[in-house]
Amino acid sequence: MKLAEVTSIDVNRTKTEMDEFNRVLGGGVVPGSLVLIGGDPGIGKSTLLLQVSTQLSHQGTVLYVSGEESAEQIKLRAERLGDIDSEFYLYAETNMQNIRTEIEKNKPDFLIIDSIQTVMSPEISSVQGSVSQVREVTAELMQLAKTNNIATFIVGHMTKEGTLAGPRTLEHMVDTVLYFEGERQHTFRILRAVKNRFGSTNEIGIFEMQSGGLVEVVNPSEVFLEERLDGATGSSIVVTMEGTRPILAEVQALVTPTMFGNAKRTTTGLDFNRASLIMAVLEKRAGLLLQNQDAYLKSAGGVKLDEPAIDLAVAVAIASSYKDLPTNPQECFIGEIGLTGEIRRVNRIEQRINEAAKLGFTKVYAPKNSLNGLKVPDNIQVIGVTTIGEVLKKVFS
Helix or strand or coil: residue 89? Predict the structure, then answer.
């Protein structure tokens, strides 16, 4: 059949009451889709899906299968998270044959498996959670989801290396792979799509873990900046992009003379190799003698910053701590730094500047090459820069 002859269909997505969750999925839950959610233990995967399940039960039948908790335990948590509809069914089971029978009996619109590592097929001789068990059970769930048009969510465990446990084919078998990230010491969580057949992989959802469950963070920039100290050295603000959403975040640096032979470098929420590269450029191109200085770098609030546009903010934070001079609290920084010290263009510059202006920032340093034909708000001054040395002179003069 020719592609042009194939009839297009409209996908009727089911929206939850959590816009952040809908955004990451591409606009809502697609019937018959198979979604894998991974994350570290205790990060809140079960809480997220239990909360989503209570909302979906108002629009269809939900079957929540748990191999880790009893039905009584799940009900206690569900009552804390929201109203429970009569179409919300619980089933504590690990045998795939029994789960299949329950699915055929209840004919759910939405199925949650928590977790895939606890479910086993009696037809496979290997132990629970083994590669062959996970592959076989996932294949059976995929067949059930597609045949019966059941939107299915699978919880997957993460390894110590930060990858999903189980066979690599697991990620290829499902339609969508979501990572639920965050530091357990912080209350903020980020839901990120790394694969999505029904939407973009450039979207994230931000939540805050509270006593009543997960709450959406509608304006994350304000939350990440609310505890920033005015006049503190070693601090700068960057406008980073998480998918199509601009977010302002604080980069912090502490630079101190080393007390031992080799200088120490640590990073939290930032790429270590990228930070080392920036420090080398600062030493070579801007004259900062950092080889005998310990450097501790972090992104405040637990957010992970990993795009090239954060380079300039990281460099300014390091220079601020090294010189013991604060940055202006109303200034922010956008730009990638090259090895020759040049400030390189970044994408979505207008969107970033508009977000900074909306939050009351009055000045932004950005790559000069990105500013051609740019329309910016009247309440913010945009300074085009070409080298890191030029930036430091203007910021600390």
Answer: strand
Amino acid letter at 118? T
Residues paired with 190 in a beta bridge:
181, 206
**Domain, as residue range, for 267:** 223-396
Task: Tell me if 165 sits within 8 A of 33, measured CB to CB.
Answer: no
DSSP H helical ranges for 269-383: 272-285, 311-323, 349-358
Distance CA 108, CA 26 (A): 22
* Tokens 């009543």 belong to residue: 212
- For the stretch 193-228, pLDDT in tens is 999 999 888 788 989 998 888 999 888 888 778 788
Indicate the pTM of the whole model: 0.78
Binding site for ATP, by residue number, is 39-46
Q: How far apart are CA 142 and CA 5, in angstroms?
A: 27
Is 6 within the bounds of a domain?
no
Is the separation of the CB atoms in 203 and 193 below 8 Å? yes
Strand 343-344 and strand 110-114: the pairing is unpaired
Q: Strand pairing partners for 237? A: 250
Using alpha carbons only, give the angle 185, 167, 135 rounded to the nearest 5 degrees: 115
Cβ pair 299, 220 in contact under 8 A: no
Q: What is the CATH number of the domain that holds 176?
A: 3.40.50.300
* Site of tokens 């939900």: 62
Q: Which two tokens stand for residue 70?
A: 């009893």
Shared domain check, 130 and 163: yes
Please state, as a whole number, how many other Cβ atoms lie within 10 Å of the Cβ of residue 170: 22
Binding residues: 39-46
Residues 6+ apart with CB under 8 A from 40: 158, 181, 184
